[in-house]
Amino acid sequence: MTRRKPLIVLGLLATLCAPAFAATETDYLAVFMEGKKVGYAIHTRTEAGGRVTTSEEVRITISRIGIPVTIQMTETSVETAAGKPLRFETVQQLGAMTMMKVAGTIDDAGAVELTSSSMGQEQKSTMPWPAGAVMAEGLRLLTLENGLKPGVEYTVDIFSPGVMQAVNTSVKIGEKKPVDLLGRVVKLTEVTTVLRMPGAGQLSSTSFLDDKMRTLKSVVPIAGMQVEMVDCPKEFALGSNDVLDLIDRMFVKSPQPIDNPGAASSITYVIRPAQGADFTIPSSDNQTAQRLPDGRISLEVKPVRVSKGGTFPYKGDDPKLLEATKPTRFLQSDDKRIVDLARQAVGDTKDAAEAARRIEAFVAKHIDNKSLGVGYASAAEVVESRQGDCSEFAVLTAAMCRAVGIPSQVVVGVAYVRDFGGMEGFGGHAWTQVYVGADERGQGGQWMGLDAAFRSSSRGGYDAGHLTLAAGNGEPGDFFNMAAALGQFKIEKLRVERAR
Predict the structure, then answer these.
(1) N or C: the chain end with fewer CB closer than 10 Å?
(2) What is the mean pLDDT of residues 18-37?
């Protein structure tokens, strides 16, 4: 099981929800979760030669069953004095192993030249700049233009290098009110910001600004927890942290124990969202979500069972499936070590479903150190270290499947466990889904779930105890919906159907 994916999104949200409105100095903020100090944020802005450079660094440390995990992200943007985007860079340190760096340069035609690096290897690619999107300086200028008059509302697309896309953002200016800044009470203007990502619901934050447009405090409800960033002296921000263990804060209680979920042909869950919650539970080949008249959600999870069938590599022309065969910065399916392992795992089979299951079984054995101390490693790093928890099993499985031409995605959601750290219920989890059963033209296939992490234990693999919240290429942005949903719903009842 994994507990840090919403924490990865927290780092991304911090850079979006606390833009650097300060002039030319450095601002320090302490980061609190559930009232405990877990890290810091640093915002700097410098202007020289007609260009503005803004840097935003966030570092947080949490504990999982007594094992500390540190996540650090730094985003730097370079813009003209008028707010035109020129360059950006993001460095993500997701635990002890992963150091991921992405740099981009935007040309006059709106094309972005990207350079991604990890473990000394570089990948170059291009992408279009999202039309109208702004970065830190553009956002600062827009805020100055709109001012802090109560009732003012506007929307803007903010490009985040951390998620490599523009996030649609609504801003609403509220009234001035007294705000506690670590014992110092001052009157600040309340600003409500709502972040939206396609198909992933929304996350709302509340910031408090002084008359110079400096963000002195922000509050973000995320994964059922209250996260705060508060302006403070440098010494306090960078000082010692408290210990916050998330194991009991990121579980969804089960209304009843589930005996042997692997033997269930389907499980139907009745889910009640919290009042005002806005998130998406997607339908797929493996689950069907239906909104009930009273606002609850009926979710039937019926795993696709493909014993054999289909060819590989995929030869169709479906854009989504083609994307799911390509290497990414976390799924380096063109890495020679991953290609060699994939061919070794697949052997002589020509059957796509059998090949995928062989890869699942191979990964279940290859990762021999099930460590909770890994932040979030890429597939290439997992090949080297052979350690990690569910997300490392998931990214390596997906990358190896892509290496032999089987479309695959990393899935995040919650999965049922009878005992994890003394708890029973549904915990944050990651697994893999693969498109198998397709003919020579790439048609007639289905997405089938694989879970190498569960297969490596006594659980057996993917089953009806898995509730999908999002699927994608393993990018941090894919975790947005999980962060929005956790803590925002409860499972009221469930019905298990057994195979006859």
Answers:
(1) C
(2) 75
